[in-house]
Design brief:
Helices cover 67% and strands 0% of the residues. By secondary structure, it is mainly alpha-helical. The longest helix has 19 residues. Keywords: Nucleus, Transport.
Length: 164
């Protein structure tokens, strides 16, 4: 199944709703966005747009000082939901989810999200091929993102969580 260029009226309605969420009310209902891209029964285009909006909203709404910033409870809930979705069948969506997780990891790992690396490593050791592939993809993006941090304190933290 591939992303389609044709937009149905349902997709158009959801696009308008996303635009309103992100322009008028800040990040919108993040749990709803999370539920949309994790719902495999919805149209692929809708799910892909939801993960893109979520990923692009991380820089704008994840930090504490941002206008319309997410609460710590919401962030905790979203982090927990993100690391349970390694069974995405669509490659484009799986890649965007991996990049999304890496963006959150850059801000929160390992202080607020210490379980991310151990869960990724455990998923890589699994026997399900799709789950293993998606976990490796996510691990690649997370490692690449964390390794790009420049501050000495961040580099020390990265060394602490990386296996020796």
């Amino acid at each position: 199944m591939h992303l389609q260029a044709v937009r149905s009226p349902c997709v158009e309605l959801i696009l308008k709703r996303f635009f309103w969420w992100f322009s008028e009310s800040g990040f919108g209902t993040t749990s709803t966005t999370d539920n949309i891209f994790n719902n495999h029964t919805l149209d692929v285009n809708v799910r892909w747009l939801a993960v893109l909006y979520f990923k692009n909203g991380i820089d704008r709404y994840w930090r504490r000082v941002a206008p319309h910033a997410l609460s710590e409870e919401e962030k905790t809930s979203l982090r927990a939901g993100l690391i349970t979705n390694f069974n995405e069948p669509i490659n484009q969506i799986a890649t965007q989810i991996a990049v999304l997780i890496a963006k959150v990891a850059r801000l929160d790992c390992p202080r607020q999200w210490p379980e991310l690396i151990p869960i990724l490593l455990e998923s890589v050791k699994g026997h399900d091929g799709l789950l293993q592939h998606r976990a490796l993809l996510t691990f690649y993006h997370v490692t690449k993102t964390l390794a790009s941090k420049r501050l000495a304190q961040d580099r020390r933290l990265f060394q602490d969580v990386s296996p020796h």
